[in-house]
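WARN no homologs supplied; continuing
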Amino acid sequence: MSAGAAACNALGNLSAGQALGRGVKPVTLWTIGFVTMAVCAVIAFGIAPLVAEEWRFGLRYGAVIGFSAVGGLIPSTAISQQMALAPAPDTVSTSLGLGQQFNALGQFAGPVAVAFLVQNAGGWHATWWVTVSFAVVGLLASWWLGFAHRTGPTLSSGRG
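OK structure emitted
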């Protein structure tokens, strides 16, 4: 079952590339990704425990699939924007490296934060707060980057 969630994440990554190629704005993809991840986390860990036992697994697994699939929009979009928002052509590799470091930090810190919360709360019921908090930070950062991209210099034109 977790392989299905992982496969859905790959589909989200590929879909982001297609959407960007068709002219969808990165901030739109980020907004869809972060909002969907927040909503799915609330469903999986905040609402699913409250529903009847016979519906719980399906609701939770559907939310996890949605979380994974739509969450896949975020990394591909981020990588494309790291190249576009690099301060100068000779800083693209540094920008990508820095982005990879922040990605690795998130991949490390996220599960640790959730594990800490699960341990101290005595269960998974409050973990959606971690995802929603990170999603809000991601939304704010993506909106700021969307604004910076419209008003600042770009590699292709020298001016936003």
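Residues 92-121 form the longest helix (30 residues).
OK
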